[in-house]
Amino acid sequence: MAWEEAFLLYLQNNVRTDVFDQIMRFFSFLGNAGWFWILICIVLVIYKPTRSIGIIASVSLAVSAGICNGLLKTIINRTRPYDAIEGLELIAKMPHDSSFPSGHSNASFAVAGAVTWCLSKNRKWIGVILILVASVIAFSRLYVGAHYPTDVIAGIILGTSTSLLIYLLLRKRIIKPVEQI
User: Fold this and answer.
1) Which residue among 30, 123, 143, 149 is least enclosed by CB atoms within 10 Å?
2) What DSSP assignment string belongs to 48-81?
3) For the packed helices 18-30 and 124-143, what is the interaxial angle rounded to 10 degrees?
4) In angstroms, rounded to a whole number, what is the distance separating the alpha carbons of residues 41 and 56?
């Protein structure tokens, strides 16, 4: 789509700076192989008061990653924008899978969404922070030239909807009212 190419080239030619490059590379690195979100799930599972939240977040991450990386990327097999758009430079580690949907965005919103759904009302601010981090990771994938906007949007939708579905399926079985943080 022409608007996606124009948007990515606009970011490269008008928004990229040395300082932003470093910041966006860092946030993109946080999403590599989902390690940051896996670490959050592990910490939540280890700590007994948050164990149920960690289980829901872990299941959400596993299911959404399976759909995203195991199924959709293989079936759709979209070429990365830096390979398809003349003049677009990738300024991050080169991915070795296809572009659609964004695995970084998917994993980020699967965990951030799951944790947010599970939090009590007076702790939703934690979810806001996680969603902000997830949003910056998602944007970083556009900024570094690794994804098209529709890849990122699809990853956000997939991760968020998976987290909500898993939360709705597991909340009454796993979360006890006194455990909610």
Assistant:
1) 123
2) GGGHHHHHHHHHHHHHHHIIIIIIIHHHH-PPPH
3) 120
4) 9
Q: What share of the chain is helix, strand, coil (3-state, %, to 5)?
A: 80, 0, 20
What is the rounded distance in angstroms from the CA atom of residue 78 to the CA atom of residue 91?
A: 19
Ranges in the chain, pLDDT < 70: 175-181
Three-state DSSP class for residue 116? helix
**Torsion angles phi and psi, residue 159, rounded to 5:** -65, -45
**Structure tokens that stand for 171 in this block:** 């909340």
Helices 103-118, 35-46: crossing angle, 10 deg rounding: 20
- The crossing angle, in degrees rounded to 10, of helices 149-174 and 51-65 is 140
Is the model's pTM score more than 0.85?
Answer: yes
Report CA-CA distances (Å) from 28 to 47, 166, 179.
27, 26, 33
Q: How far apart are CA 61 and CA 162, in angstroms?
A: 8
Specify the pLDDT at position 20.
Answer: 96
Over the range 40-60, which residues count as b (16 or more CB within 10 Å of their CB) and which as e? Answer: bbeebbeeeebebbbbbbbbb
Q: What pLDDT is recorded for position 41? A: 97
DSSP-assigned letter for residue 94: P
